[in-house]
Amino acid sequence: MADRSGDWTAIWWLGRKAWFENPPTAPTAIAVSGSVVVPKAGRTSVPVYGRAYPEAAAYAAYPGVPVQAVVPLQYAILAGQRYAVQDATILTDYYRAVTFDGTPPSDHVDIRGADTYYQVSLGHPTAFVRAADVDLVPAG
After folding, report:
1. Does 99 or 135 have the greater pLDDT score?
2. In percent, how much of the chain has pLDDT > 90?
3. Using an 8 Å Cβ cutoff, are 38 and 20 in contact?
4. Averaged over 89-111, what is the pLDDT?
5. How far apart are CA 10 and CA 7, in angstroms?
6. DSSP 77-134
7. What value does the mean pLDDT of the chain take?
8. Could you give the CA distance from residue 137 to residue 140 in angstroms, rounded to a whole number?
């Protein structure tokens, strides 16, 4: 929950407060337990990603496999915002298969990275934040 005013409740939705009617006498939302992410202390914002691929160094052992860029989306989580965690501690990997002929060829590789992410509910899109950029705190 981002805010409350009378019968109205706000949640963080794509970087803005989204308000909906939620009177205490006939609530439309219920309290749940879980975790949220917040930017680490001192950070004014943290980038949000559409995928959680390994860091560039993880590709070094696989010559010829192109590094998959991890580029931030147009969204960010700002200081003071909290987003629900859908899946905690996502270990990064990138599975590459050049051929698909039904046999396990030698060109199939699974590159695993050291970076970890949290999968968050940013709005309708599912997004990822680097665990190093945020703190995981109880939702209450």
Report:
1. 135
2. 53
3. no
4. 79
5. 10
6. EETT--EEEEEEEEEEEEEEES--SSS--TTEEEEEEEEEEEEEE-SSSEEEEEGGGE
7. 88
8. 9
Q: Could you tell me which of 27, 34, 18, 13 has the C-alpha nearest to residue 121?
A: 13
DSSP state for residue 13 in the 8-state scheme: E
The greatest distance separating any two alpha carbons of the chain, rounded to the nearest whole angstrom, comes to: 62
Residue position matching structure tokens 């337990």: 33
Q: Is 29 helix (H, G, I), strand (E, B) or coil?
A: coil
Mean pLDDT across 60-88:
91
71, with CB counted inside 10 A (0-12, 13-18, 19+), is exposed
Give the position of tokens 């009177």: 23
AA letter at 92: T
Entry pTM = 0.77
What pairs with residue 113 in β-bridges?
none
